[in-house]
Amino acid sequence: MEPEVIRDKDSMRKWSRAMRLQGKTIGLVPTMGYLHEGHLSLVRQSLTLTDVTVVSIYVNPGQFSSTEDLSTYPSDFSGDLTKLAAISGGKVVVFNPKNLYDYGGETKKINDGGGGGGRVLSCVEEGGLGHETWIRVERLEKGLCGKSRPVFFRGVATIVTKLFNIVEPDVAVFGKKDYQQWRIIQRMVRDLDFGIEIVGSDIAREKDGLAMSSRNVRLSDEERQRALSISRSLAMAKASVAEGKTSCAELKDMIIKQLVGSAGRVDYVEIVDQETLEGVEEIKSGVVICVAAWFGTVRLIDNIEIDVSL
């Protein structure tokens, strides 16, 4: 049986509060839909931690800049419900709102931003009565993906805050493929005193090692084969660290050569502290190697954690 679908904020709150009155704990898995096995693994993990789980399916325009076309994001809502039905056991509901930035007045250009030399614009600067409050985790959002996507993490932090306030979960599960996002949400929850446990779930991979992503469907067969250089180069770097190589410059050069040799266009390769996301020059404690690269028109991200104590 397909999960119940809730479309509006008030109904979602009522459902959550009814569950809490029954003594049930609530999990939340935020998604933008087009679910794959990686998403489903997050749902399964949430179901092991809570009595019921809410899967939000919402393509958030607030995290897209004016140069990004959110209409190209893949969608298969019917297929998503079928996949969730196979694993839910009646313990999953879907929150699928139409527009979480619509307050009954004019809402104009809520995906504005990123223009004018990186200047971030409020959606109300074009006139209208739309959303103008944004959440920013100021230091953690600056590096890695934040360099090339300047409005992305303010949009993520804001929509996750809205979902937390609407769903009122006890636990929220995020995939570690979006490592910076996971750490930003952790920090936001700590700083703003949300009573929510944030769980990071390990990266789900295809059999050949490619990190699962809704974007993978846009890769040609040739591009997909070339994109395997991401996970392979990360594995090589981790093996090199195990053999005693700790120079981050050398490790990054090795990864970049692998990506460029596979016709990838590198956005960044960074080795950062797992908690602070600050770059390191020598690996002496736990780090994460983060990669973003383009293959064709598709931007892919991946990472690998390295836990060492030297």
UniProtKB/TrEMBL annotation:
<comment type="subunit">
    <text>Homodimer.</text>
</comment>
<dbReference type="InterPro" id="IPR003721">
    <property type="entry name" value="Pantoate_ligase"/>
</dbReference>
<dbReference type="GO" id="GO:0004592">
    <property type="term" value="F:pantoate-beta-alanine ligase activity"/>
</dbReference>
<keyword id="KW-0547">Nucleotide-binding</keyword>
<dbReference type="InterPro" id="IPR042176">
    <property type="entry name" value="Pantoate_ligase_C"/>
</dbReference>
<dbReference type="Pfam" id="PF02569">
    <property type="entry name" value="Pantoate_ligase"/>
</dbReference>
<dbReference type="GO" id="GO:0009793">
    <property type="term" value="P:embryo development ending in seed dormancy"/>
</dbReference>
<keyword id="KW-0566">Pantothenate biosynthesis</keyword>
<comment type="similarity">
    <text>Belongs to the pantothenate synthetase family.</text>
</comment>
<comment type="pathway">
    <text>Cofactor biosynthesis; (R)-pantothenate biosynthesis; (R)-pantothenate from (R)-pantoate and beta-alanine: step 1/1.</text>
</comment>
<dbReference type="GO" id="GO:0015940">
    <property type="term" value="P:pantothenate biosynthetic process"/>
</dbReference>
<dbReference type="InterPro" id="IPR014729">
    <property type="entry name" value="Rossmann-like_a/b/a_fold"/>
</dbReference>
<dbReference type="GO" id="GO:0005829">
    <property type="term" value="C:cytosol"/>
</dbReference>
<keyword id="KW-0963">Cytoplasm</keyword>
<dbReference type="GO" id="GO:0042803">
    <property type="term" value="F:protein homodimerization activity"/>
</dbReference>
<dbReference type="GO" id="GO:0005524">
    <property type="term" value="F:ATP binding"/>
</dbReference>
<keyword id="KW-0067">ATP-binding</keyword>
<protein>
    <recommendedName>
        <fullName>Pantoate--beta-alanine ligase</fullName>
        <ecNumber>6.3.2.1</ecNumber>
    </recommendedName>
</protein>
<keyword id="KW-0436">Ligase</keyword>
